[in-house]
Design brief:
It is a single chain. The C terminus is likely disordered. The protein contains 15 helices and no strands. The chain has a single domain, classed as MetI-like (MetI-like fold, Orthogonal Bundle), CATH 1.10.3720.10. With about 300 residues, the chain is mainly α. It is flat, with a radius of gyration of 25 Å.
């Protein structure tokens, strides 16, 4: 009996210890990036990256935030596009997926196959670009960073459709229909409140995609006041690399680079770009796992 009791205690404890160690190991890259970003450039060049900075310096952040108004505008654009894009995209995905989950929808299998087909083949970059520039005239507008990503992935639609099919009881929908509720009322009053796990999961996917998007900004935006934070950071890093290539041909540029924190700036760029997302995860974590597993039960 004592042996069985000891096994019951030691077994779960070892499992918990393993996952705690795995979690801490996963945090090491983020800790390393932050520590390098607050290290002095000389210590990095001389002794390499370290979890324990030899010399604390905030020169990288001072360099990035030298013109704070530019950073603030970029953050404002990113937050605006992320909020609007995530909410609208999530609503469109749900409105698309819910009818596909209803067994009485005509051509249900054909529409599902059409969505799946878009995961395998695309129209190409040139037609895609011309459609948004010539037809919708999105060049140098805030909508250029929202509309192209509204239906981010057919996978999201299929995942949400599977969740609706496996989780929303058909009897609940039938009862609401008998009571005289319209399809819109059923969707917003019954289906969505019962679908918080999958909504939070797809919402997290959309948030990450909109926040990390710099490609659309590069293609459609020429005005600096409309740059988002990711493209601004990418542009800053590109400018540093350009100066590095030109440093041999100009003594003035070489002197400037000697005072510029290069390696630490790279890490500071990562911190500036990813830090706000760390605050979003706690809101989605509660529903994330259940949304993934429930959506994968039934195809």
């Amino acid at each position: 009996m004592r042996t069985a009791s000891v096994k019951k205690i030691i077994g779960p404890s070892l499992i918990h210890l393993f996952f705690w160690a795995f979690t801490l190991a996963s945090l090491i890259p983020f800790i390393l990036i932050f520590m390098v970003s607050i290290s002095s450039e000389d210590s990095i060049l001389q002794k390499g990256y370290s979890l324990f900075p030899k010399e604390i310096s905030f020169a990288a952040y001072q360099f990035l935030f030298n013109d704070f108004s530019e950073i603030a505008k970029a953050y404002g654009v990113t937050i605006l596009t992320t909020l609007i894009g995530t909410v609208v995209s999530l609503l469109m995905t749900a409105l698309f997926a819910y009818p596909l989950s209803r067994p009485d929808l005509p051509l249900r299998r054909t529409l599902s196959f059409y969505i799946f087909f878009t995961m395998l083949f695309g129209g190409g970059m040139v037609p895609w670009y011309m459609t948004y520039v010539n037809m919708f005239d999105l060049k140098n507008t805030i909508f250029a960073m929202i509309i192209p990503n509204l239906l981010l992935s057919a996978f999201n639609v299929l995942l949400m459709r599977s969740f609706f099919s496996s989780t929303i009881p058909e009897s609940v929908v039938e009862s609401a229909t008998i009571d005289g509720a319209s399809e819109i009322r059923i969707f917003f009053s019954i289906v969505l409140p019962l679908s918080l796990p999958i909504m939070a999961t797809i919402g997290l996917f959309n948030t990450l995609s909109y926040w990390n998007d710099w490609y659309n900004c590069m293609l459609f935006i020429d005005k600096p006041e409309l740059y988002n934070i990711q493209y601004l950071m990418t542009k800053t890093l590109t400018n540093i690399q350009y100066l590095l290539m030109k440093s041999g041909s100009s003594a003035q540029v070489g002197e400037l680079l000697a005072k510029m924190p290069r390696e630490t700036v790279r890490m500071a760029l990562a911190i500036v770009g990813i830090a706000p997302l760390l605050f979003a995860y706690p809101f989605f974590q509660k529903y994330y796992i259940s949304g993934i597993t429930s959506g994968a039960v039934k195809g």
